[in-house]
Specification:
Helix content: 10-25%
Strand order of the largest sheet: 1-3-2
Order of helices and strands: EHHEE
Largest sheet: 3 strands, antiparallel
Structural class: alpha+beta
Radius of gyration: 19 Å
C-alpha cells in the first residue's frame, strides 16, 4: 500500500497516544440468521468465507509502519506479512430469548 495516514486517522492515533482513556479505534459485530436446520455457522467456516473475500478489502491486511505519529512524519499503511484472520474473529453468543432475569 505505502499510503500515509489521513489527517483524521493521524488525529485519532495522537488522541489515543495522548490519553489512555481515549479509545478512538473501531470494532464491529455481525448478527447471523441461523442456517438451514437452525444451527449457527462455525467460526472456522466464517473465517474461511471471509478469507476468500479479503482481496476485496485491502485495508484489512495492513498495519501501521510505526505505532506513533511524529511531528513531521506520519506512519504509512504497510502489508502485514504476519496477518492471521483467525486472530480477528471471536465468537460470542447471547443466551436464548427469555432465559434472562425477569423484571418485576
Amino acid at each position: 500500500m505505502g499510503e500515509h495516514l489521513t489527517p483524521l486517522d493521524a488525529a485519532f492515533l495522537e488522541l489515543e497516544d495522548g490519553d489512555e482513556s481515549s479509545h478512538m479505534h473501531v470494532g464491529w459485530a455481525r448478527v447471523f440468521e441461523p442456517l438451514a436446520g437452525g444451527c449457527a455457522p462455525s467460526v472456522d467456516r466464517l473465517v474461511a468465507l471471509l478469507d476468500e473475500r479479503l482481496d476485496l478489502l485491502p485495508h484489512f491486511r495492513v498495519r501501521l509502519s510505526s505505532p506513533r505519529v511524529a511531528r513531521l512524519a506520519w506512519p504509512e499503511w504497510v502489508e502485514d506479512d504476519g496477518f492471521d484472520l483467525g486472530n480477528h474473529v471471536r465468537p460470542s453468543g447471547l443466551p436464548p430469548r427469555g432465559s434472562g432475569p425477569r423484571c418485576r
